[in-house]
Amino acid sequence: STKADKDWLQGYVDDWVDFYRKHTKEGQVASYIPILAKANPNHLGISIHGKNGMIVKSGDTDIPFTIQSISKVISFMVACMEKGIGYVLDRVDVEPTGEAFNSIMHLEMKSIDKPLNPFVNAGALTVTSMLNGKTAMEKLEPILKLLEKMIGYRPTINQAVFESEEESSARNRAIGYYLVETGFLESNLELTLETYFKQCSIEITVDDLARIGLILANDGRDPFGEGEIIPRQIARIVKALMLTCGMYDASGKFATYVGIPAKSGVSGGIMAVAPPRVRERYLPFIEGCGIGVYGPALEDRGNSIAGIKLLKHIASQWDLSVF
Ligand code: GLN
């Protein structure tokens, strides 16, 4: 029965969260944005939303946190919907960098003619600058609307996190000025930065991330709603980008050892997508599910340390890898 299945799955997930929580001690909360250093490093929570309607969640699932870099997925999708995929990809490439998310290394290389991908800050600022609107709130409106369609309520912007990002913005400004000089920014720098910091400061939970993952896993459709929320082609591109660039410069290892599209943020969130696939052991719950993880203690690349270990374990137990 569904109830027995759910209890069985719940038991496993509870055990795994208990087990992996100790690994939070091996990581550190982000501190370059001062307010993020206040997060509790011991927190670890996961939520999994199945296409069959089952939800399994465990650990610290009620803590709201800011979406940070996971917002780059949303802004990229909105830019593609507003301007067309061709327009966006003419201005931002789809290649992994192998460098940190806020690296300035590649910007000046002659062989590279545009920011390498929308999930590093150079690419994300370029994408945000493309969004329609003359004010930050106008540019953010379609991002908030799309999120609302996916998670079922209109999320808010955490003002304190936004201010903290603004106060510690030297690196993003450096990247931004370079993009101004090279002609990539389509809005002025201050407007672009304000919009970008606000999009990073949108507050969400692991359930919200699981819902977004579920919709991406199902090619942009909500299995419980009607019609397409994200055009299929955009959902496909975004999943390819998540797999190749979603976990910063640890994306290769994540693709190898976990094998599903995922996007992390420095506040400790991970949004993962398990597309449906033929498996030897048929578990309806995991066919096209979305997974949200929160664990603010990070490894040195900026990904949730226990979150990655937990996902790796679940992916191997349930054969989630798309390969
Ligand atoms: N707001 C953060 C920054 O731009 C987001 C980074 C992240 O989550 N990797 O530095």
Tell me what the structure shows.
- This protein has 2 domains: 2-67 and 203-318, DD-peptidase/beta-lactamase superfamily (Beta-lactamase, 3-Layer(aba) Sandwich), CATH 3.40.710; 69-200, Beta-lactamase (3-Layer(aba) Sandwich).
- The protein has 323 residues and is an alpha+beta fold.
- The strands form 2 sheets. Strands 2-1-7-6-5 form a 5-stranded antiparallel β-sheet.
- The radius of gyration is 18 Å and the shape is globular.
- It is built from 12 helices and 7 strands.
- β1 (45-49) and β2 (55-59) form a beta hairpin.
- Glutamine is lined by residues 68-69, 101-102, 121, 165, 172, 200, 265-266, 302.
Tell me the number of strands: 7
Strand content: 5-15%
What is the approximate shape?
globular
**Sequence of strands across the biggest β-sheet:** 2-1-7-6-5
Largest sheet: 5 strands, antiparallel
Query: What is the succession of H and E elements?
Result: HEEEHHHHHHHEHHHEEEH
Number of domains: 2
> Cofactors and ligands present?
glutamine
Q: Which topology of the largest domain does CATH recognise?
A: Beta-lactamase
So what's the CATH class of the largest domain?
Alpha Beta
Low-pLDDT regions = none
Summed over residues and divided by their number, the pLDDT gives a mean of 95
Distinct helical segment count: 12
Radius of gyration: 18 Å
CATH superfamily of the largest domain: DD-peptidase/beta-lactamase superfamily
Distance between the termini: 30 Å
